[in-house]
């Protein structure tokens, strides 16, 4: 590392997981949750909800994962709340993985990279999620921008939803699955990184035993933990020897405990303990 190069996302997330555990809280302000909390489903309710969650969880977990769609549905005021969520979560010591699942032709990919991965942008996060289904190479601008600024990119590989396999298990000309190809490309991007690469894969905590090699020398985001049915035993089963690089991510199962801040904080501590025990 030179004096001017930023610490890589891979190094930061590895240190954060060692320090604060492998549980990631999704900050997803569903309209129904806002109403359950006694809030209005508008930008004011969104702000109260999101900032209460940040205060309860961001000082205690390694990574938070706001889902952009739930902020965008409130227009520009919602996006302003997302900017606050990112800034205040980072100030509380959490890495922020912005779940936006972007993917487009290369020139537009660069604009997404500028929006989310360049620290000069008000929406800059530590890492984003990206979709490889316009071709893995279409993500090159995000990869290059992430490298330049010490950010990360998590690419969809084996998603937690039941519709995923029809695309992700399809085979390419050389007989590999689409998911296998994505994982292989990520392995290439992470080769030689020390201690861990910055290019992660999204692999759901709900999937059947994978045929693919999940050892990509990068972080592995496992959504579908909690509400969608995944638990600590699934993380051990699915990821095997790579489980130490997994971030198990849960949104609604934690958010339902609000607006009681202490209950949400306790849920983070409990989930971290359960994961540590299952993966020991
Ligand atoms: O394969 C994927 C990729 C992303 N997600 C996102 O994670 C959360 C899950 O929320 P829960 O309330 O814990 O079910 C949500 O933001 C999804 O968009 C996913 O579920 N599966």
UniProtKB/TrEMBL annotation:
<keyword id="KW-0665">Pyrimidine biosynthesis</keyword>
<comment type="similarity">
    <text>Belongs to the OMP decarboxylase family. Type 2 subfamily.</text>
</comment>
<dbReference type="Pfam" id="PF00215">
    <property type="entry name" value="OMPdecase"/>
</dbReference>
<dbReference type="GO" id="GO:0004590">
    <property type="term" value="F:orotidine-5'-phosphate decarboxylase activity"/>
</dbReference>
<protein>
    <recommendedName>
        <fullName>Orotidine-5'-phosphate decarboxylase</fullName>
        <ecNumber>4.1.1.23</ecNumber>
    </recommendedName>
</protein>
<dbReference type="InterPro" id="IPR011060">
    <property type="entry name" value="RibuloseP-bd_barrel"/>
</dbReference>
<dbReference type="InterPro" id="IPR013785">
    <property type="entry name" value="Aldolase_TIM"/>
</dbReference>
<dbReference type="InterPro" id="IPR011995">
    <property type="entry name" value="OMPdecase_type-2"/>
</dbReference>
<dbReference type="InterPro" id="IPR001754">
    <property type="entry name" value="OMPdeCOase_dom"/>
</dbReference>
<comment type="pathway">
    <text>Pyrimidine metabolism; UMP biosynthesis via de novo pathway; UMP from orotate: step 2/2.</text>
</comment>
<keyword id="KW-0456">Lyase</keyword>
<feature type="domain" description="Orotidine 5'-phosphate decarboxylase">
    <location>
        <begin position="22"/>
        <end position="267"/>
    </location>
</feature>
<keyword id="KW-0210">Decarboxylase</keyword>
């Amino acid at each position: 590392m030179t004096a001017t190069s930023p610490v890589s996302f891979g190094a930061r997330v590895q240190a954060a997981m060692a320090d604060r555990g492998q549980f990631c809280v999704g900050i997803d302000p569903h309209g129904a949750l806002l109403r359950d909390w006694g809030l209005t489903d508008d930008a004011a309710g969104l702000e109260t909800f999101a900032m209460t969650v940040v205060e309860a969880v961001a000082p205690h977990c390694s990574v938070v994962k706001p889902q952009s769609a739930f902020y965008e549905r409130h227009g520009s005021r919602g996006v302003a709340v997302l900017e606050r969520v990112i800034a205040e979560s980072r100030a509380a010591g959490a890495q922020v993985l912005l779940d936006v699942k972007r993917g487009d032709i290369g020139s537009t990919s660069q604009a997404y990279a500028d929006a989310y991965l360049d620290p000069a942008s008000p929406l800059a996060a530590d890492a984003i999620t990206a979709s490889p289904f316009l071709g893995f190479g279409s993500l090159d601008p995000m990869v290059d921008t992430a490298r330049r600024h010490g950010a990360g990119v998590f690419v969809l590989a084996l998603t937690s939803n039941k519709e995923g396999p029809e695309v992700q298990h399809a085979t390419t000309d050389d007989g590999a699955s689409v998911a296998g190809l994505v994982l292989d490309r990520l392995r290439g991007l992470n080769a030689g990184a020390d201690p861990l690469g910055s290019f992660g894969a999204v692999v759901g905590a709900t999937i059947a035993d994978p045929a693919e090699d999940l050892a990509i020398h990068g972080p592995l985001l496992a959504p579908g933990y909690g509400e969608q049915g995944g638990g600590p035993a699934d993380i051990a089963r699915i990821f095997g020897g790579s489980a130490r690089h997994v971030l198990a991510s849960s949104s609604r199962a934690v958010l339902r405990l609000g607006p009681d801040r202490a209950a949400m904080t306790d849920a983070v501590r409990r989930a971290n303990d359960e994961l540590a025990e299952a993966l020991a």
